[in-house]
Design goal:
The protein is of the alpha/beta class and about 575 residues long. The chain is about 65% helix and about 10% strand. Helix 18 links the parallel strand 9 and strand 10.
Amino acid sequence: MIKTLIVSFGKYTKFLILSCLFVTLEVLFDILLPRYMGKLIDFGIESGSIANTVHYGLILVAFAAAATVTGILAGRFSARASSGFAKNMRRRIFEKVQTFSFSNIDYYSTSGLVTRMTTDVSNVQMAVMMIIRTVLRAPLMIVFVLISAFSINKQLPIIYLCCIPVLLIALCAIVRIVFPIMRRVFRVYDDMNNVVQENLHGIRVVKSFIREEHESKKFRKVAGTIRDLYIKSERIMALNHPIMQTCMHVVFLLVAWIGAKLIVASGNNPELGMTTGYLMTMFTYSTQILMSVMALSMIFTMITIARASAERITEVLLDESSIRNPEDPKTEVADGSIAFKGVKFSYRGEDGSAVLKDIDLEIASGETVGILGGTGSSKSTLVQLIPRLYDVTEGSVSVGGVDVREYDLTALRSSVAMVLQKNELFSGSIKDNLRWGNENATDEEIVHACRIAQADGFIRDFPDGYDTHIEQGGTNVSGGQKQRLCIARALLTSPKVLILDDSTSAVDTETDAMIRRAFRDEMADVTKLIIAQRISSVQDADKIIVLDEGEIIACGTHEELLENSDVYREVYESQLKGGEENA
């Protein structure tokens, strides 16, 4: 895990090294301060030597100034190192997510990935900064204090050595209990982000059904769970403080008692043993060593939280997309012909229940194919196998006579344009959104694609035309306008296969017919797959496929299906009757 994460320092490694260097220097100066304070007391104040008092006083001022400067520099460099580390880590996670298949994203969930890139990264960033400043400083302080203390007296430092294991054992016990609680906290964070995301995405529905109180209760419940878990962990971690305080008081009492006896025995003579100045130094060392252990306990609390976050981040960084390029991929799609052979698909792989079963289908290049079926009949799943948004569990899907798994993903998806059922527009101008299909598209190509998609008319009605700003998610355009913009965006890829996944559901029947007519007149060589709820949207297709529970139950032209398919005939008559009643 550490090896995976430490790569994120990148060019900021130099700041990490500089920070460690200045932390080490800061510790050295902090150790020397009490040592020379003892000399000031023994050889300056108690001896009555003004010269020695000034001499050691100036040395103390210099060491204090040096400790301050090195401390500031260490803090500055550690902040730059940790913030750069966090920036690189977020970039790595984001870039990794871009390579994920739909299966990977389904596994983590959108809210889970958002939590990893925000809360989890922030936790690890804070832990890294504290590790540089504290985890490095505290052990150095303990080691240097012990070395300096043993050089003064061989007995008193043994008190420190006896105290440290007690504190470390208590600390490890607390961390071991708290860590599982923190892991659960971040799983609940995912649930909370999911509630927030779902609420904001569907806020119009929430308000229209007056469900604000219901949504608030959902949020309060998940937020309350996080609160309870944090309280539970804090109660356990709170034991750390009294343990530390008890150890500190015991150490002070023992140092004072044994140190006073040594001073009396040596007559306060530096050459014979302990002195008042050295005892003051040992008191300071007691404080420094216990504060270092206390700092370690605090940082280990943070590391306990960060460890759970680090594991979640590492899981994403080490994960591989379930859909990858083959070793020697084909980069050219010959035509738009499509073939499904013995296709079976399950979202959970071979162990899951199949949502598509025994799919055998041949589609010639340039054909228009309609796909009908009830809700849950796996219409969208079927077409998502063509550009490898998912991979088949069994069988094969071919485009241009080649199994889609043999293509370079970029080449395949450049040739298969898909307007998803829940397509998105992004903040920016209409031109910016359309150029997602082809970033080098000219204004003439953009207008031509919009005319085919029947979008040019309403775009020109906007005051700013094609430069009109689109709000995030396309909230300032209607559902039908949004669908037509998404169709135009797909057309700009100049695809060999065009898939419309219920992409004209918000468009009126007249505009829908104009779009289909434009497809027929200007895209005769492009294979078109149209998923629709209205039979009128697909009745002119070369063939129509009827799906039910993941199986093809009928296939043929509109006339053939009316004659041979009871399901198709029933849907047609119900829609025809509904249309007559509305008329």
